[in-house]
Design a protein that fits this description.
8 strands, Arc Repressor Mutant, subunit A, HTH-like, two-stranded parallel sheet, DNA-binding transcription factor activity, Jelly Rolls, alpha+beta, DNA-binding, transcription, six-stranded antiparallel sheet, RmlC-like_jellyroll
């Protein structure tokens, strides 16, 4: 059994927004080809599993699926809603830092239950309409509508404390490297070199952004990937250890147990 990768957007496009397909019921676990997917459902019932967490569909519901995350649906009644597929290139072409910050904030909420649907549905329909015949001058319109949409989501689902994460460009680049790399390397020095900075500065960047060291942040990604491989492939623990760049399986087992208080084999069977 191997992890299936799906690509739902044409190579020439960097963003796609459309109605959620009403015929979707059960899907096999899969991940996406290096893009973010945001799914909003205002009708339907069932569940949605992202990596190793299963969420009930209690409409209206928003799901945020990050690049490389595994997910699958178990929908029991006809769904209605919208889906946004967004490539890295869309954000690279944007000069609106507030939009990038809002997407960063949303990535911390894999599932949120919203308060109302009228305004959200209106914004989604405007986005669909504006993307039908997209031309360059519409980029500003699309970005403005996305900002309104994401701000609405965050306003409805998080306490209004005034505290938001302010991600630096370097932190966003590190996050993107971890999400898109074929192999995650358990080394702060490795990523510091790629970002043309020092390990000390990379630690400071991570602590400023999310309050943890660069080593811990990288470790979280390694454990996430290990859990995906344990759950969604038939690879042995030794094979997973090799793929994750551990020197041997015993080192990987000790590392995994220290982070999760379970051995890889116990996690797989639980």
């Amino acid at each position: 059994m191997e992890i299936t990768t799906k690509d739902k957007i044409e190579n020439a496009k960097d963003i796609k927004i459309e109605a959620f397909r009403a015929n979707i019921r059960k899907t096999n676990p899969h991940k996406h080809n290096k893009y973010v997917e945001i799914v909003y459902l205002y009708e339907g019932s069932g569940s949605h599993t992202i990596d190793y967490d299963t969420f009930e569909i209690n409409q209206p519901t928003l799901f945020f699926i990050q690049k490389e995350q595994m997910h699958h649906w178990d929908i029991l009644s006809e769904p209605k809603g919208f889906v946004i597929i967004m490539k890295k290139s869309f954000l690279e072409n944007s000069t609106d830092q507030q939009l990038i910050q809002l997407i960063g904030e949303m990535s911390h909420h894999p599932c949120v239950y919203l308060k109302d649907i009228d305004q959200v549905n209106t914004i989604f329909q405007l986005l669909v309409d504006n993307l039908k015949d997209r031309y360059d001058t519409q980029q500003t319109v699309i970005e403005g509508l996305l900002k309104a949409l994401f701000a609405k989501f965050l306003h409805d689902t998080t306490p209004s404390t005034g505290n938001t994460h302010q991600y630096s460009e370097s932190f966003i680049q590190l996050k993107d490297l971890l999400e898109s790399s074929e192999q995650i390397i358990n080394s702060v020095n490795h990523y510091a070199d790629l970002l043309h900075t020092t390990p000390q500065n990379l630690n400071a960047i991570c602590k400023t952004a999310i309050g943890v060291s660069a080593s811990k942040f990288i470790g979280e990604y390694i454990i996430k990937e290990a859990k995906r491989m344990l759950l969604y492939t038939n690879q042995t623990v030794s094979e997973i250890a090799f793929d994750l760049n551990f020197k041997d399986s015993s080192h990987f087992i000790r590392y995994f147990k220290r982070k999760t208080e379970m051995t890889p084999s116990n996690f797989r069977t639980s």
